[in-house]
Amino acid sequence: MITAAVQEREHYLNASYGIKSWLLTKDHKRIGLLYLATITLFFFLGGAFATLIRIELLTPQGGLVTSETYNKLFTMHGVSMIFFFLIPSIPATIGNFVLPMMIGARDLAFPKINLLSWYLLVIGGLFSLFAMLAGGVDTGWTFYTPYSTTYSNTWVIATALGIFIAGFSSILTGLNFIVTVHRMRAPGMTWFRLPLFVWAHYATSLIQVLGTPVLAVTIVLLFCERFFHIGIFDPALGGDPVLFQHLFWFYSHPAVYIMVLPAMGVVSELISTFSRKPIFGYGFVACSSLAIAVLGFLVWGHHLFVSTQSVYAGMVFSFLSYFVAIPSAIKVFNWTATLYKGSISYATPMLYAFGFIGLFTIGGLTGLFVACLGIDVHVTDTYFVVAHFHYIMVGGAIMAYMGGLHFWWPKMTGRMYPEGWAKLSALVIFLGFNLTFFPQFILGYLGMPRRYHVYPEEFQVLHVLSTAGASVLAVGYVIPMMYFIWSLRYGKVAGANPWGATGLEWQTASPPPAHNFEETPVVTHEAYDYSAVIGEVIEVG
């Protein structure tokens, strides 16, 4: 729905028409939009499950669903949100769209593999959707054994197969990004001239390529035990259920950084652009992304503090869990230093960046609580862990995703969105999120276990607050969807560089041509050099 004013020149949206031109496209920008549509579907599907969970928890005895259905709701919420929204969210949508342009490339290194990765996500999603429609799965998104391999009568294999297939999408995307960054940078684009968004995705890609195969192997072993009764995880067959936890979390804790590292890359771009300053300590921020990727593989054991893991192993993992917080702290301190004496514009993307810093900091600090052996024994499997996880994933990853979507929306569509509505939605999301999840810290500390739909009456007030916050949060997420769609037809036409940003993606038209640049750019300045900015700047402050 692009009007004549935007159609005067050829760009990636009007270079060809028809469903076939989209389903067979090799243009990284169109593939990014295909990912955007796919993960948006899973986001609202996961949100629907979350809504039913919160309504069920309004009263101590429940009454909306049975305990079996409740188990399926929180499982399908986790599967939808983690494997089919959060993991592909920033890399596969925003990363796919802007990363080649950021380094001056015409496309990703392997365009056909890029399209294949989207199809794999869709196929995996269809398997999981089938499982949901056929009756659901009740194991929790972690699929702990031996329940998932022996005792559950739900659609475990169909769901796990969907995740297995989607994992290959993640591997191929990571592989594509690594090769593209190594081999397709524009002349003059040295490693330490790369935008921090690219550094973050490079580090993320290493985790995707190295970590995801471990999850694939784990799912194969689960399949073998469930179908062929090979004793791998079930003690009755001579297996070890804690082995599954080691294998699962060896991938799934680094997977947290697959979700968070790209978000950190987005925030680095937003902080620099809207404070009109280069990122303070650029080299430290870039290297901290790689440090997080490496250290993320060394801390999985903090998920097993109350398992049969030895106290000595627990102490080592506790120390490493504290240690991995240092690179994240470097980023937060350097962002704060960048803001100092900056010319700050309170545009919508910057509001989301501020929200990310605050909420991610709370999530990170509460992560130190659960990294402490003594405290973790008390709060394991309580709502404290639920709140901590959501402050990182929703307060961190989704806030940055929304900030990035608002930041690059003019580049994607050639249209501006209504700034007033956008700021209102950012505020509503921030308030709704805190009202939803902060009471859960208190619930967990008081001893409320997670995954229970029946609870003592003294916890009801906090649950009611949490459900009220979820209602506000849902409204906050629906508003952007409405004005983004509205902006496609009625939004103000965007210039090539509406924010006055420094990246190469802002040196081409909005929307970009099919091959990104009319001629290959030559980089002659350092990253975030605002003296080099040339372009139309719209007042958004």
Characterization of the model:
This protein is mostly helical and about 550 residues long. About 65% of the residues lie in helices and about 0% in strands. The chain contains 17 helices and no strands. It has helices spanning about 5, 20-25, 30-55, 65-100, 110-135, 145-150, 155-185, 195-230, 240-275, 280-295, 310-325, 325-340, 350-370, 375-380, 385-415, 420-445, 460-490. α7 (about 155-185) packs antiparallel against α8 (about 195-230), α8 runs parallel beside α10 and α10 (about 280-295) runs antiparallel to α12 (about 325-340).
Point out poorly predicted stretches.
1-7, 534-541
Strand content: under 5%
| Helical run tally | 17
Radius of gyration: 23 Å
Can you tell me the overall shape?
globular
> How is the biggest beta sheet arranged?
none
Distance between the termini: 28 Å
The total of beta strands comes to 0
Q: Class by helix and strand content?
A: mainly alpha
Helix content: 55-70%
